[in-house]
Amino acid sequence: MQEPRDDNPHPTVEGTAVLGMKKCCEMCGLVLHHESDAAICSYECTFCVGCATRMDNRCPNCAGELCPRPRRSTGAVQIARRAPARLRRHLFKRPGTRGVAEET
Asked: What residues does 104 pair with on adjacent strands?
């Protein structure tokens, strides 16, 4: 596993790119911690909630929609220890159920 670097805009966990959590608003420079409310566009432009509201939730760089940024509560090391959702899970249907699948 590659350790994420602070200057790397696209950190990886086990070779898969993860969302680059920028540390400040690109408009006003407000410091944004991982647990802070923020807004991002599909290109990961990052703004504080106040600036995003003033811009009608439109990115000034790409004119895309600004959406709430997910909060990161753990680091890359803790995430790598879990079974990520991107792994294929094998589902099976139990006899006697109505289309309900269960994880194996």
From this structure: none
